[in-house]
Amino acid sequence: MIHSTPRLRFAPSPTGPLHLGGARTAMYNWAAARALGGTFLLRIEDTDQARSTEASLRIILAGLRWLGIDWDEGPEQGGDYGPYFQMQRLHLYREAADRLLAEGHAYLCYCTPEEIEVGRKELEALKAGFSGYNRRCRSLSSEQRAAFERDGRKPNVRFKMPDARVMQVHDLVRGHVEVNTKELDDWVMLRPDGVPLYNFACVVDDIGMQITHVVRGEEHFLNGIKQRLLFEALGAECPLYAHIPLILNMEGKKLSKRDADTNMLDYRDKGFPAEAVFNYIALLGWGFSGDRDVFTRAEMVGAFKIEGIGKSGSKFDEEKLRWMCGEYVRHWTPAEFVQRARPWLADAVPTAAFTTHAAWLQNALACYQERVAILNELAAKVGWLFADPAMDEAAAKNLVKDPASKQWLAAYAEHLQNSNLPPSWPADRQGVDDVVHLPTKKDATAAACAFWTPSAIEHDCRAFTETLGVKFGHFVHPVRAALTGTDKGPGLFDVLFLLGKDTCVRRLRTAAT
RNA sequence: GUCCCGGUCGUCUAGUCCGGCCUAGGACCUCAGAUUUUCAUUCUGGUAACACGGGUUCGAAUCCCGUCCGGGAUACCA
C-alpha cells in the first residue's frame, strides 16, 4: 500500500445530474473507503467549462446525500488536500506540465484540429490498425517552433507515449491485462488556455490528494494505461485501479432517459425509499452473499471488497427495484411510514389529520403499508378516507351484481345507525382506541374500548348477514363499493372502523338509492 | 478496422482463482396452490441457465484453444 490510510474519491464532472451509473461508482468507492477504514473524498472535475454548471453540482451533491453517501473531504466539507475543484487547481497543472516539458516527457504541439484530422486520415489509409495523432510536433526544430509562434499559434502540451511498450497491469476487477502502448495516442494534457484535459488533471490530483484506490467505469480502462505512464513520468506511484462494467438497459444497450430516471433526485421525488435504491444499486454488479439481497448500508460496508465486483455488465431491472422498495416500506413502523409518506400526501390528506388525529391517520395509512412500494402511489388510494368517493367501474359492477344488494345496503345502514361503530373523522373520536395499528392488530377485543374494533365489527357483520339470509362473501362486495368506491383496499372492517358511523351510514344510504 | 473485457435461469447473482461437496443455490419476474371479505401481504410448490465446438482429465460451469454474440476504447469530453 502506498499510503498508510486508504484514500478513495468520486470525481464527477458537473455536466449533468447524478445518474445510476455515477451513483454506483460513488457508492463502490464510498463502500471501499468505509470498509478499509479510509477516507472518501469528492473532487469536482469542472474543466469542461462549456458544460459544467452550478446546478448540476448541487444536484449531484444532493443525490449523493440522499443515498446516504457522505464524504470526508470535498465541496461543503473542506479538507487538507484541496482545493477540490479542478478549476481552482490550474497552477498545479501548469507546474506539472512545465516539469514534464523540461524533462522531455511532453512536448508542445502546434497542430490545428484540421491538421490533426488530416494526419489521422493518412494513418487510417495505411490500414495499419491504430490511427491517431501522427506526432508531427514531436520532432519540431526550434526554427519551426518559432515560425508557428510568429503565426500566432498557441500550443497544446502533449504527452510522449512510449512507442511500443507492453504494459502489464493489474486491475482489481479485471485481473492481469496487457496493453501495448502503440495502441495509444500522444494525448493532449494541457490546452493553450491552461485548462487541463481529463487524464492529466486526474493524475495530478490523484497524486496531490494521495489517492490509493480508483474504482470507475470501464470506459476509463485505457485512460488508466495513459495515467499509469503519467504517474511514472511524474515519479509517483499509481493507485490501485478497478474498472467496472457499465449498467445497461433490459435490451443490453446503454442506459438512456427512456429506460430509467437519469437523475437520482427523480427517484427521491417520486418517493422511492433511499435505502431501497441504495440497496438495489449495490446489487448491480456486486453480491452481498449467495442467499441474501436485502441489506443495510452498514452491512454492505462490512462485506464489501473491491475484488468482489463482477466483471460482466448488468442490466437495470425496474421490477426488482420496485420490489425492493416495497420490501423496505413494509419494514417501517406505522409511525415511520406516516412520517416518510407525508410529503406525498399534502394534497390528499387534510393537515388536521396529521395533527389532531394523528393516531387515527396512522391507523389509516398502516392499511396501505403493504400495498405501496413507491410513496407517490399512496395519494391516489386514500381519497375515500376524507371525501365520499366516486365509484369506479369494478365497484359499480359489484354494486349491482346481485339485484338485492341495494336492499342489503339500506338494511345495513339502519343496523349500523344503532350500533357502537366509532364516530366519524373529523368528529371527536375520543374513547376510540385509534392506536390499534391496523391492520396488524385486528384481534383487539371489543370489550377493550367503548367503541367497536374491526374484529368486533366483523363479528357483528357476520351475524347480521345471517339474519339477512345473505352469504357473507356476497355481502361484503357491495358494502366495500359503497364505502370506498373501489373493489380493492384494506379489510372491510378496517374501512368501517376508520370511516366511523356517520360516514358509513351516509355512504351506504347513498349507494342504496 | 484495431485493441481490451465479458458470456451461469427472461433479469440480478452464488459457485469459477485452488476441477469432484453442482442431479448448478438464492432473489426478482412468471405460473399453480394455500390463507382470505377484495387487493395486497404471507406461506407452499413449479417452470426456467453453465453461449457453441473442440481439447486436457478418472472427472469441467470451473483449466486450454477456436467460433459466435455482447460491451468498452480508439477526442483540444469526462
Task: Report what the structure shows.
The protein has helices at 20-35, 54-67, 90-102, 113-125, 142-150, 198-208, 221-233, 264-270, 274-282, 297-303, 318-331, 334-341, 351-355, 358-366, 393-400, 405-417, 454-468, 472-484, 492-499, 501-512; strands at 7-10, 39-42, 106-109, 156-159, 166-171, 175-180, 188-190, 213-217, 240-244, 247-248, 314-315. With 513 residues, the chain is mostly helical. It has 3 domains: 1-75 and 245-331, 3-Layer(aba) Sandwich (Rossmann fold); 94-190, Glutamyl-tRNA Synthetase, domain 3; 393-512, Orthogonal Bundle (Arc Repressor Mutant, subunit A), CATH 1.10.10.350. The strands form 5 sheets. A 3-stranded antiparallel β-sheet has the order 3-4-7. The chain has a two-stranded parallel sheet with strand order 1-2. Strands 5-6 form a two-stranded antiparallel ribbon. α1 links the parallel β1 and β2. The longest helix is centred in the first third of the chain and has 16 residues, at 20-35. The radius of gyration is 33 Å and the shape is elongated. The protein starts with 6 loop residues before the first strand and ends with a helix. The mean pLDDT is 92. It binds one RNA strand of 78 nucleotides through α4, β6, α6, α7 and β11.
